[in-house]
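Team,

Forwarding the record for the chain on the shared tracking sheet. I've put the sequence and predicted structure together so nobody has to dig through attachments.
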Amino acid sequence: MNRSAPRLSVSCALALACWWASPAAHSEESPEVAAPAKPAFNYALGAIASSSPDYAGGDGRKTRLRPAWAIEYGRFRISTSRGSAFMGHGLGPRESGASATLAQGDQFRLSASLRIDNGRDGSDAPILVGLPSVRSTLRARLSAGYALTPRWSVGAGLSQDILGRDGGAQLSTSVGYTWPVTEQTKVSFSAGASFGDHTYLRGHFGVPAGGSGALPAFDPRAGLYSVDAGFEVMSALSRHWVVLAGARVSQLQGDARRSPLTLEPTGYSVSVGLAYRCCR
């Protein structure tokens, strides 16, 4: 009896030590070890086919296939004009070029961006031949978005030509509604209005006096120049592949509508795209 008691005590001690060293003994004390960290690097790579007016107010159309991509690291992102749509950012206006999130909460988002504005020249439409080109420039933009409810949101963005190439300033506002049809598919509806200062409207819708063309001189005033509405459908085909389709209608207003360059005040655009997305 006396010899077996020490052996039993040692066996119990070893069993207790083994249990204490096992992961199951500490699973409730350190659950954060089992949860992997969310990756900070994301990207989307794909292409979009689109058809749209040859210029704002034009009666011709242009159809093209363009690459669409976005690279995101933390609060910084670089993307094409439609690349950020594949990333699934639903709060606030989607930025092209290089952008950074300045502040973000559950309902509010503030961001800043730099993008290249390619302008416009006479090759875009026959009526533009002989008119001064809208020079390409670099635009700085400050954007804000606010989620009123889980489905309704509002946004605004102010951009400015920072190279002094007569690009002027532009203000856009929007309201949107997102309908999650399934876990893989969502439909977004939005409507917006765009405003421009005198410099912006003169460059895009003005006709200078004494020009070589047959168009009468026209000097538009600052103010509201366009309203638009549209929808977008995005569906995840798999964990990484996502398809995107959308349509939008816009209508020129005010002096932009009265411009001699405006041949068709109402225009529409349609697009469809496919992208590989990782690692959201």
